[in-house]
Amino acid sequence: MASGFQRAKVRAMFEAFDADGNGLLEEADFAALVERWRRLPRVAAGPELTERVRGVLMGWWHHLSALAAEEGEGAGRVDMDVLMAMVDRLPSMPEAVTATADTIFDAVDENGDGRISRAEHQRLIDTWHGRDTATADVFDRLDQDGDGYLGRPEFATLWLQFWISDDPAEPGNVMCGPLAPAA
């Protein structure tokens, strides 16, 4: 069962995904998320990458919708509890989480140099949230080797930590932006 810490960090993503703000995730919310990602220059310029992004994001929608139906919530409407039930399943699906990281990496690696810069990471956060988001020292926490970039393996590890970790000290917890202060 996901911890209170995991729930707090994933809540910001739930709110970012909920495009219409109705407190539920629906297919239209994921379609809106796909549209946000399609605006990134590398995605907009590449039909194959556009399709990969769409496939990954809508694939997660289908997983969530099926889980909602399985849990008796009804397909097509996902609440925070269903999202957290999916988070509970992610440790048994590391390949799917890493495949998502790979696609997101390609989408934000604007210049295709195989590294995510501070500015590219900022675009990732802004795209997820659908707005400009202050990030303070988030990138410095992620960039463990201090080289000014996140390489693909580093990015995948951080992505996995964000979605799976229950350890507040792991740097990947801020992959999608700063964490809200504990209540």
Structure description:
This protein is mainly alpha-helical and 183 residues long. It has nine helices and two strands; from the N terminus they run H-H-H-H-H-H-E-H-H-E-H. It has a single domain, classed as EF-hand (Recoverin, domain 1).
Q: Give unreliable regions as ranges.
A: none
Q: Tally the helices.
A: 9
Estimate the helix proportion, in percent: 55-70%
In this structure, how is the largest beta sheet organized?
2 strands, antiparallel
Strand percentage, roughly? under 5%
Task: Return the CATH class.
Answer: Mainly Alpha
Number of structural domains: 1
Bulk shape: globular
Task: Give me the count of strands.
Answer: 2
> What is the succession of H and E elements?
HHHHHHEHHEH
Could you name the CATH topology?
Recoverin, domain 1
CATH architecture assignment? Orthogonal Bundle
**CATH homologous superfamily placement:** EF-hand
List the strand order in the largest sheet: 1-2
Mean model confidence by pLDDT: 91
- CA distance, first residue to last residue: 20 Å
Structural class: mainly alpha
Gyration radius, rounded: 16 Å
InterPro entries: EF-hand-dom_pair, EF_Hand_1_Ca_BS, EF_hand_dom
Protein name: Calcium sensor EFh
Organism: Streptomyces parvulus
GO molecular function: calcium ion binding
